[in-house]
Amino acid sequence: MTDKEIMEKKDEILALISRLEIFADLAGDKNKIFLEKLFSFLSVKNFREGEIILDKNEAGRSLYILINGEVQMLRTTLEGSPFALSNLKAEENVCFGKAALLGEDFHGSSVKALSDCSVLELRSQDFLSLCEEMPAQGSKVIYRIARRLAKALQEATKDSLTLYQALLDEVGMP
Predict the structure, then answer these.
(1) In the chain, N or C terminus with fewer CB closer than 10 Å?
(2) What is the tens place of the pLDDT at every residue in 133-148?
(3) CA distance 58 to 50
(4) Contact 71, 4 (CB under 8 A)
(5) Could you tell me the CA-to-CA distances from 55 to 81, 83, 149 in Å, in that order?
(6) Helix/strand/coil (H, E, C) string of 19-53?
(7) Which residues neighbour 167 within 8 Å (Cβ) at sequence distance 6 or greater?
């Protein structure tokens, strides 16, 4: 897919963006200008099957919106062996690299193309400049990202406590 083809599908892309969780508060006419400006910052990137779209070891500087194809979220064990967390299809309204919109960030997972696929890239610097221009709308997106990160942190803390308790149980400590 090319940037020209994306321009020809502008209404479809804007509808897709407004269905994404982090942009869900921006549906409606009063936020149309924000979404239009956001659209102007998007660029297309194409990946072949097997290519790494996001590497968890590299600093993230962009949000990616999957517009066609299928990807796999990957993590690694302590020994460095990769394992799959989930497979995601474009039809599922998928985006990844959300935390990068808040500034340079390391990803929790890698993302690998399972088929030839296309993504829309939104660079964090472009998003943050849009937030400065339109802070009311930008704060809605940032709030959604912060809530998602807080939930992930709570789940990680719960998992750590469960593992700690299992360790104590295993060694016979109360």
Answers:
(1) C
(2) 999 999 999 899 888 8
(3) 18
(4) no
(5) 14, 14, 19
(6) HCHHHHHHCCHHHHHHHHHHHHHCEEEEECCCCEE
(7) none
Q: What is the full DSSP assignment across 60-109?
A: E-EEEEEEESEEEEEEE-TTS-EEEEEEEEGGG--EE-GGGGGSSEE-SS
Contact 146, 75 (CB under 8 A): no
Residue 54 CB: number of other CB atoms within 10 A?
21
Residue with the two structure tokens 């460095």:
80
Q: Residues 34, 134: contact at Cβ < 8 Å?
A: yes
Place of tokens 């296309």: 118
Prediction pTM value = 0.84
pLDDT 10s digits, 51-100: 999 888 887 889 999 999 999 999 888 887 888 889 999 999 999 988 88
